[in-house]
UniProtKB/TrEMBL annotation:
Tree of life domain: Eukaryota
Predominant localisation class: nucleus
Lineage: Eukaryota, Metazoa, Chordata, Craniata, Vertebrata
Presence of the UniProt keyword Transferase in the record: yes
GO cellular component: cytoplasm; nucleus
Name of the protein in question: Adenylate kinase 6
Pfam families: AAA_18 (PF13238)
Subcellular location: Nucleus
Keywords tagged on the record: ATP-binding, Cytoplasm, Kinase, Nucleotide-binding, Nucleus, Ribosome biogenesis, rRNA processing, Transferase
Reactions performed catalytically: AMP + ATP = 2 ADP
Gene Ontology terms for molecular function: AMP kinase activity; ATP binding; ATP hydrolysis activity
Species, as recorded: Poecilia mexicana
Amino acid sequence: MTMPGISQYYDGYDEEYQCPVLDEDRVVDELDQKMVEGGVIIDYHGCDLFPERWFHIVFVLRTDNTQLYTRLEDRGYTGKKLQDNVQCEIFQTIYEEAMEAYSEEIVHQLPSNTPEDLEKNLHQLIQWTEQWIKDHN
C-alpha cells in the first residue's frame, strides 16, 4: 500500500499548541484497508477517531503526573500545551475516551512510569499477541 507524504495528513497548524492539525478523516481512510488485513499496532495519543472494528485490544499507558510533567517539560512543552497534557492525565481523559469508544472488556491500563514498566508492558504485549495468534490460527 502506497501512502502519501506525511504532510498530506495535516489540515493546518495549531499555533496555540505549536503542532500540525491531523486530518483525521484522511488518516482513517488511508489506514482502513491495512487495518482490515490485520497485524497492525496503532500508537496515538487519542482513540475516538479510530473505528472500534479495527481493534482486538486497546492499551492506555498511564503516567504519574509529576513524572509526566517533567517528561513533557524536557520535550520543550510549555504553557497551555503542558498544562492540558497533565490535566488530561489527571482526569483520565484518554482512558475514559477509550472506554466510551470501545467495548470495556478490550480496554486495559498499563503503568508507564519507569524503565521496568516499559519492560513489563512490552512483555505483556508480546504474551497477549502470541496468545491471540494461537487462538485465531
